[in-house]
Amino acid sequence: MPDTPDNAARPVTLPSAKSTPPAAQRITPWLQGAWLTWLVYRLLCLPTLVHLVNVNHPDILGGMVWQGLWLLPAFILTPWMWRARSPYALLLGSMLTLIYLGASGVVLFIRVYGSGMAELMIYIVDFVLLLLINTCLFILLKRLPSMNKVVKKPRPPRY
To answer: Which of 65, 121, 126, 133 sits in a 20 to 30 Å window from 17, CA-based?
Structure first.
């Protein structure tokens, strides 16, 4: 039989240990986009917008320095969040973003009673971005291979 497109030899692809499931590949761009948007928003936009909206006009540069210090753990985790392959790093990142989400919720709760609606909207955007990041992380962690199912090769006997 001649080789035709129907019965041509197709290369056999073996699943590699580092391949990620298709669902994880679909959620990764969402995580990357939300992570980068949140970092830029928190570092640059939040201090600028608070300066414009707040009646006390806090210092923009001081706010950016403060946010930079506050985001230092997030900057350290950025390469692992960007690759989104290691379950251990993503689990650590999920715990860290849950802390950020809790702190953002506390600030949002405080601003409800002490600020105007425009300043409240600034912190709502921050909270929603963190919620989106955490949702992506939970979905991604569910789709990644299990961390506790390690297949070990048997050792050859020693003589």
So the answer is: 133
Domain that holds residue 91: 22-143
pTM, entire model: 0.76
Per-residue pLDDT tens over the stretch 78-111: 998 888 888 888 899 999 999 999 999 999 999 8
Determine, yes or no, domain membership for 9.
no
Domain count, the chain: 1
- Which of 9-23, 75-89, 93-107, 119-133 bottoms out in mean pLDDT, i.e. has the lowest? 9-23
Domain assignment present for 152: no
